[in-house]
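For concreteness, we quote verbatim a single protein encoded this way:
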Amino acid sequence: MSFLLEGSGARTGDFERREQFFLIVAPGPFTDGSSEIRTVEVSTVDGKTRTTMRIRPQDIHGNYLGADQAVAVSGISTGSAEPTVVTDAGNGWYELVFTTDEADPVIEISIGDTVAATGRPTEIDVPEPRPIVSSRPPAGAEDGTVTRPPVDRTCRLCYIIAACLLVLVVLLTILLMKKR
């Protein structure tokens, strides 16, 4: 969230005040099959197999890993492999390039300490996970009196408090400008 106040005073001239607040949410646990994985290319040059794969890390709650987290994504392959190169595509996807002397290597992709996929490149393509849908009918479905879902009062309260703080900051700034 960012607040910007611009103004001009007789004694101060033009001025600008900026306040920024950040919230970083760390994704929850990752599991096998929770992230979308694609095999992009498999090629063989001079007896070395080069496999390029992409992964979009997603936790069990549907949260993505985000950008600039390439250190959390890793991969290994069988054979006398060169170190796996991990590149952040900047759009939620990470590209892994495996180079090995085996024609059809077994690859393991990990997110942090969790193995996201293991197998041959053609076998471990994982499609985008489906949204979690409950098989339980909504309350009141039996008698036709379906109720509205409960309101998240905590979230609503946070918005109200943030709006009040914003108004308070603006009013205090105006008051301070008038005193000068």
Remarks:
- The first helix runs from residue 153 to 179.
- The chain is about 15% helix and 35% strand.
